[in-house]
Design goal:
heterodimer, A: 431 residues, 5-stranded parallel β-sheet, 16 helices, globular, B: 142 residues, 7-stranded mixed β-sheet
Chain lengths: 431, 142
C-alpha cells in the first residue's frame, strides 16, 4: 500500500506551514516510504539524539530548522550532549569542537526541547505510558520504551527525532503496529547458576550475546527470574541495542507484553531457538574484555593496570547509585585510579538530596552529568579501564582508544579500592 | 569481467548513481562508534574488517546495527566525502536511510541506498566492482 498523507500532512509537505515544517515533513515522508508505512500517526512525546555533536552536518540541520523558527509541538526531552554542561572543565578535547557542540545544544533548547541531557529519559519523573505512541531516538531508550514501558516507538535515528517533535507525526510502521511487536527468536537459558542470575553483572553480558545473535528480529528470553528490576532490563536492552539492532525484547515474566512465553510470541511458534549456557556467557564477557588480549593467565594474577573505572552507561539510576554507595561504604578509591559515574542531572539532584553524591565524592568518585565517559574526552590517559556496562565496553576502544575489562559493579568497586584488577570468577561457573 | 547474468533490480530507499569497488561487510556495522567520519576507516575494534576504509565503495551490509547516531555519522561522512559511494542492504534500515536523506537535503549529494535479495547479495561477494543507476539496477563486474 502506498503512503497516503492526510490533508494537514500534505499541507505541511507543500510548505503551507513554512520551510521548517516542510523540511521536517519531507524527511518523515521519505523514511515512511523506505519503511513502507501507509500513513503517518500522531506521537505524543519525543526524545532527541541529534543534540550530540558529530560534526558540522548536525549543526547545519539544526540551524536550518531553528533559523526558520521551528519549535517542538510535543513534550520533548534531550539526550546526552558532547560534554558535561555543568562541569565543562572535565572536557579534555579541542575547544573549537566544544564551542560547536555547545552551539548545537543551544539550538535544540531554542526549539523548545527540555534540557534533560540524559540517555535514560525513562528515569525522569514523567515518562511514557503503556501503549503510548512516541518518537524516541537513542538506541537504549528505544529498546527500554518498547520493551519495559510498553510504549511504542520506531527505531528512530538522528534527524527524524526532531522532525517528529516539530510535526507531532511519525511513520505508522515497525513497532508502532501490533503485528510487529511479537518475538521472532527464542533464547533459552540453561545451566546458569542462581548466583549469576541474581547478579547485575549477568544482564549486560546476556544482552550483548542476544543482540549479536538476533539480527533484526525481536528476541524473547526464557529462563530468567520473573519480575526483573528496571535496572537489569535497562542493562540488557542497552547491550542488545549496541551489539545488534534490537529495538524491542521480551523477558518472559518481566516485560509487560510477555507475561508468558506464548504471549511473547503472540501464539506463534518461535522461528528459531538458541540455547544460552554459562560457557556462552563467559565467552561473550571475555570478548568484551579487550585488555585480555594483552593479558596473561588468570585475571587474579593479571598484569593489566586499571587506571579508570567507568560506570553509568546508560545513565545510572537512583537505585544504582544506592548500590554503589552501599558497596563503597567507608572505603576509598585508591590513589592513581579515576572513578567516573555518569548520570542525568535529575538523578544527580535526587542523590544530592539523599547525601549520596557527597558520600561518593568524598570516597573519590567523580559524578559526570549530561554526557558519558565513552563519547567524549574526559578520561586522563590510562592503560585500561574497567566498566560494568557492555555498551561502554563495546564502544570505548574505538571511540576513545582505551582497553577495557568488563566486570560487575562489585568487581568495579573492589578493583577501585584495591588499586588493581579484582574480578569474581566463581559466579560465572556452571550451575 | 562483467557478470553476464541479468542485471539485478533492487528496492530503492534513496535514489542515486554510483560506481565503486564492492566491499561486503562480514558483520553489520554501527556507523556511530564504528566509522570515523573524518577518515572513512572502520574503528569498531570488534569488527572483522576493523581499520579498513569504506570510502568510495559500494558497501554491502546485511542489516544496520546499534546507535541512533549512525545517521549523523553517515551524513557527516557524506559531507566530508569519506562515505561509501552506495550502500546495499538485505533489509531496510531507517537509520542509514536517514543519514543519506539528510545529507542530500543539506548538501545535494546523493548516496544511493538500496535493498537486494539474498541471491544478489551473494553475487556481490564475488563482484569486484558494481554500478548502481537511479532506478536501482546493479551492474556487477567480477
Amino acid at each position: 500500500m502506498p503512503l497516503v498523507l492526510d490533508d494537514s500532512d500534505q499541507a505541511a509537505l507543500d510548505g503551507d506551514r513554512g520551510p521548517a515544517w516542510q523540511l521536517a515533513m519531507r524527511v518523515i515522508v521519505r523514511i515512511a516510504e523506505a519503511v513502507e508505512a501507509d500513513h503517518l500517526l500522531d506521537i505524543s512525546a519525543a526524545h532527541i539524539d541529534s543534540c550530540l555533536y558529530h560534526g558540522r552536518s548536525g549543526l547545519d540541520f539544526a540551524d536550518r530548522l531553528a533559523d526558520a523558527g521551528a519549535t517542538v509541538t510535543v513534550p520533548t526531552t534531550l539526550n546526552v550532549a558532547s560534554f558535561d554542561l555543568r562541569h565543562p572543565d572535565l572536557y579534555r578535547g579541542d575547544p573549537q569542537t566544544a564551542a560547536l557542540a555547545r552551539r548545537l545544544t543551544e539550538r535544540y533548547e531554542e526549539m523548545g526541547c527540555r534540557p534533560t541531557w540524559t540517555c535514560a529519559p525513562y528515569q525522569l519523573e514523567e515518562r511514557p505510558e503503556f501503549g503510548q505512541h512516541i518518537a524516541w531516538a537513542e538506541s537504549n531508550a528505544i529498546v527500554f520504551a518498547n520493551s519495559v514501558l510498553g510504549a511504542r516507538t520506531g527505531r528512530y535515528g538522528d534527524f527524524i527525532d526532531i522532525c517528529a517533535a516539530i510535526t507531532g507525526r511519525a511513520p505508522a510502521a515497525g513497532l508502532h503496529l501490533d503485528d510487529n511487536r511479537q518475538g521472532g527468536v527464542l533464547f533459552r537459558l540453561e545451566g546458569v547458576a542462581d548466583r549469576l542470575l541474581d547478579n547485575d553483572g549477568l544482564y549486560p553480558v546476556l544482552g550483548h550475546l542476544v543482540g549479536a545473535a538476533t539480527g533484526t528480529r525481536s528476541p524473547v528470553i526464557e529462563g530468567l527470574p520473573g519480575g526483573l528490576s528496571e535496572d537489569r532490563l535497562k542493562a540488557l536492552g542497552a547491550a542488545a541495542a549496541s551489539s545488534g539492532s534490537v529495538a524491542m525484547f521480551h523477558a518472559v515474566g518481566s516485560t509487560p507484553e510477555a507475561p508468558t512465553l506464548a504471549d511473547a510470541f503472540g501464539g506463534r511458534t518461535p522461528g528459531e531457538t538458541i540455547v544460552v549456557r554459562p560457557d556462552d556467557l563467559r565467552s561473550t564477557r571475555d570478548r568484551l574484555t579487550t585488555a585480555m588480549g594483552r593479558d596473561i593467565g588468570p585475571i587474579e594474577r593479571s598484569s593489566v593496570d586499571i587506571g579508570a573505572i567507568c560506570v553509568g552507561t546508560p545513565h545510572y539510576s537512583v537505585g544504582e547509585f544506592g548500590r554503589l554507595v552501599e558497596l563503597i561504604a567507608t572505603s576509598r578509591v585508591a590513589a592513581g585510579v579515576q572513578f567516573f559515574a555518569s548520570t542525568g542531572r535529575d538523578v544527580l539532584m535526587e542523590i544530592e538530596l539523599r547525601g549520596w553524591a557527597e558520600h561518593l565524592r568524598e570516597s573519590g568518585v567523580t559524578i559526570v552529568t549530561d554526557t558519558c565517559t565513552y563519547i567524549t574526552p574526559i578520561l586522563a590517559k590510562v592503560d585500561a579501564a574497567m566498566t560494568d556496562s557492555a555498551k561502554w565496553a563495546y564502544y570505548a576502544p574505538g571511540n576513545i582508544g582505551v582497553e577495557v575489562v568488563l566486570g560487575s559493579v562489585e568487581d568495579c568497586v573492589a578493583t577501585a579500592v584495591a588499586g588493581h584488577l579484582v574480578r569474581d570468577e566463581s559466579m560465572w561457573a556452571d550451575a | 569481467m562483467p557478470d553476464n547474468a541479468p542485471v539485478p533490480e533492487s528496492r530503492v530507499l534513496v535514489a542515486g548513481e554510483a560506481t565503486g569497488p564492492v566491499m561486503v561487510l562480514d558483520e553489520p556495522l554501527s556507523f556511530w562508534g564504528g566509522l570515523d567520519a573524518e577518515t572513512g576507516l572502520i574503528i569498531d575494534r570488534h569488527h572483522p574488517q576493523a581499520e579498513k576504509s569504506v570510502t568510495g565503495t559500494v558497501l554491502a551490509m546485511s542489516t544496520g546495527r546499534g546507535s541512533s547516531s549512525a545517521s549523523s555519522v553517515l551524513a557527516e561522512a557524506i559531507r566530508l566525502r569519506t562515505a561509501p559511494a552506495a550502500i546495499v542492504l538485505l533489509e531496510p534500515d531507517e537509520i542509514i536511510v536517514l543519514g543519506a536523506v539528510v545529507a542530500e537535503e543539506l548538501y545535494g549529494i546523493s548516496v544511493p541506498v538500496v535493498v537486494v535479495d539474498e541471491t544478489t547479495f551473494a553475487r556481490l561477494r564475488s563482484a569486484r566492482s558494481a554500478e548502481i543507476d537511479t532506478a536501482g539496477r546493479l551492474a556487477l563486474t567480477n
